[in-house]
Design a protein that fits this description.
The complex is a heterodimer of chains A (about 110) and B (about 110).
Chain A: E1 3-5, E2 10-14, E3 19-21, E4 24-26, E5 33-39, E6 46-52, E7 60-61, E8 64-69, E9 74-79, E10 88-95, E11 101-103, E12 107-112
Parallel strand pairs in A: 2-12
Antiparallel strand pairs in A: 1-4, 3-9, 5-6, 5-10, 7-8, 8-9, 10-11, 10-12
Chain B: E1 5-7, E2 10-13, E3 19-24, E4 31-38, E5 42-50, E6 53-57, E7 64-68, E8 74-78, E9 87-94, E10 104-105, E11 109-113
Parallel strand pairs in B: 2-11
Antiparallel strand pairs in B: 1-3, 3-8, 4-5, 4-9, 5-6, 7-8, 9-10, 9-11
Classes of the chains: A mainly beta (about 110), B mainly beta (about 110).
């Protein structure tokens, strides 16, 4: 069965600092995609970054990068230069052969001045 | 390009009633998925439609149903509402149905069942 584990219920980071949000996954599918989404209090899920299981390089999108370690089955999100607007829930998700997104329980990030 | 839209944004119903939620995907996207988000159960997959056919279904009772129209718009219906159906219902679209395709989400419909 597929599973996503986010072990950090909450994280605090000071503005302009970098922060790493942890995500580990479990799947027997040979091909899968890993995603990170941001959910502000408004509720909308905002796509941040994608990593394919066969991608050789770690994905980057602006201030977001994904630290993909396939052997360890981890896909941690790194946010550089945190901003107050980054305060939100962050979800790691995976999509494999079943084509449905499996989500972790999320990490609430609080950025303070 | 316009994003995923969902209507209505907020809804209050009473137990036993039924409700229909609507989702319009990003133009050109043919796959629409529905998710339920609650504080207790987190984000759970309901079903996915692609080219008017249901491709995948989550572990929800038959009271939850959906459909997709030829223009890719999708509706979700919940009959005989229960208090536990109170949730944020999120719709997501992607261009095709594949593990590598990013799903883009709408703003959600907040349903409160009294």
């Amino acid at each position: 069965a597929q599973k996503i584990t986010q072990t950090q219920p909450g994280m605090f980071v000071q503005e302009k600092e970098a922060v790493t949000l942890d995500c580990t996954y479990d799947t027997s599918d040979p091909s899968y995609g890993l995603f990170w989404y941001k959910q502000p209090s408004s509720g909308e899920m905002i796509f941040l970054i994608y990593q394919g299981s066969y991608d050789q390089q770690n994905a980057t999108e602006g201030r977001y990068s994904l630290n993909f370690q396939k052997a360890r089955k981890s896909a941690n999100l790194v946010i550089s230069a945190s901003q107050l607007g980054d305060s939100a829930m962050y979800f790691c998700a995976m999509r494999g052969n079943t084509d449905k997104l499996i989500f972790g329980t999320g990490t609430r990030l609080q950025v303070f001045p | 390009k316009a994003g995923v839209t969902q209507t209505p944004r907020y809804l209050i119903k009473t137990r036993g009633q039924q409700v229909t939620l609507s989702c319009s995907p990003i133009s050109g996207h043919r796959s629409v998925s529905w998710y339920q988000q609650t504080p207790g159960q987190g984000l759970q997959f309901l079903f996915e439609y692609f080219s008017e056919t249901q491709r995948n279904k989550g572990n929800f009772p038959g009271r939850f149903s959906g459909r997709q129209f030829s223009n890719s718009r999708s509706e979700m219906n919940v009959s005989t509402l229960e208090l536990g159906d109170s949730a944020l219902y999120l719709c997501a679209s992607s261009s095709i149905s594949s593990g590598s395709e990013t799903q883009y989400f709408g703003p959600g419909t907040r349903l409160l069942v009294l």
